[in-house]
Write a sequence for this structure.
């Protein structure tokens, strides 16, 4: 067999070229010295009958292939995309966090919010600020053509309010309407809600619609019906009273009965709103609590006092605040039914403010409006103080 010129000659001197290599001892103890490590490629080549040189070449080629696969050339990494993906992500992240990208997103957001912002500034924030400035002036209707004649009077309009007998009368009427009307409305609403929640099941929807119908009915239509009912001579209420031997008064033209009549009308009109809210709150209370209270021997009144009322505190807070805000601004009932009479016995703060605007006293009327706003805020704070403790 011919020898390759680059193969190493490992045979002993003087031995024939094709002589077999020395025998490897079967037992390692037979070896006179440490046996050198043989590359895996050379061993596999020897085992398969190949020449040692051919095994070495195969091992060298395999090692070269491994090195080439592990360490690619300079252009291979960029071509294969190993680093290209993260690099693109880093570049896109930097572009997104750049000042130009943030400004673009901000402009896009303001573009979507611009219609609402303009409407809010023109029709809400602008009039509120202008009315506050107006309350510090003596602006009247005759000054609209000569705005430079308007003088800044500071808080004189607010001081003047508390020396105005008509304003104090309107404030007293409003206070009575709120103090009597709010608890009455809430109590009636809660009673009706309890009845619908426990006793009436078959016609529950019919009663809900019936009680809520006055809330969505026009105040003008309601006022026409009530004026027919309260007529002194032919009204339904006085006819019923005559049937039992009682001569009914002129309800809307009597200083004693005019304001209580409007309070009853307001409570009847707003009963449906509170009823719906209380009914939702009652249905949110777990039935297991009532079953446990019944097993423990609690009666109906005890369950209502110690279970229903505490669980309804958040609902009561909501109904109390919303009803109070509506009753402080009570305007429609006296405007349609009595025009503030008789003798200002049904004049409210909102109605008095409306009259002052009609008289052209814009600065004075603006001051009344802000006093009314402060009263609403203070009463809301009082309700939160009373009912907030157990809301959580």
């Amino acid at each position: 067999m011919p020898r390759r010129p680059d193969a190493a000659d490992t045979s002993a001197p003087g031995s024939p070229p094709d002589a077999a290599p020395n025998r490897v001892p079967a037992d390692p103890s037979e070896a006179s010295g440490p046996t050198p490590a043989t590359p895996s490629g050379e061993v596999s080549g020897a085992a398969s009958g190949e020449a040692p040189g051919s095994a070495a070449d195969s091992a060298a080629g395999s090692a070269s292939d491994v090195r080439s696969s592990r360490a690619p050339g300079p252009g291979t990494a960029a071509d294969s995309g190993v680093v290209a993906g993260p690099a693109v992500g880093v570049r896109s992240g930097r572009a997104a966090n750049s000042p130009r990208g943030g400004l673009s997103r901000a402009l896009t957001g303001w573009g979507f919010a611009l219609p609402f912002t303009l409407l809010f500034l023109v029709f809400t924030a602008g009039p509120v600020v202008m009315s506050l400035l107006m309350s510090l002036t003596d602006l009247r209707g005759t000054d609209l053509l000569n705005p430079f004649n308007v003088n800044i009077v500071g808080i004189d309009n607010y001081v003047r309010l508390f020396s105005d007998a008509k304003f104090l009368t309107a404030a007293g009427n409003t206070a009575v309407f709120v103090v009597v009307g709010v608890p009455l409305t809430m109590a009636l609403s809660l009673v009706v809600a309890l009845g619908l929640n426990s006793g009436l099941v078959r016609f529950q929807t019919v009663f809900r619609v019936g009680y809520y119908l006055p809330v969505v009915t026009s105040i003008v239509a309601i006022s026409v019906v009530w004026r027919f009912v309260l007529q002194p001579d032919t009204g339904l209420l006085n006819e019923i009273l005559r049937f039992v031997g009682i001569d009914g008064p002129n309800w809307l033209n009597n200083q004693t009965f005019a304001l209580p009549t409007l309070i009853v009308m307001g409570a009847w009109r707003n009963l449906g709103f509170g009823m719906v809210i209380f009914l939702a709150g009652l249905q949110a209370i777990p039935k297991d609590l009532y079953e446990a209270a019944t097993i423990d021997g609690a009666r109906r009144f005890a369950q209502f006092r110690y279970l229903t009322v505490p669980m309804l505190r958040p609902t009561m807070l909501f109904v109390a605040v919303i009803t109070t805000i509506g009753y402080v601004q009570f305007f429609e009932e006296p405007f349609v039914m009595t025009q503030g009479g008789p003798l200002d016995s049904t004049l409210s703060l909102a109605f008095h403010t409306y009259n002052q605007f009609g008289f052209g006293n814009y600065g004075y009327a603006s001051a009344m409006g802000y006093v009314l706003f402060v009263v609403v805020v203070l009463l809301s704070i009082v309700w939160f103080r009373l009912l907030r403790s157990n809301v959580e």
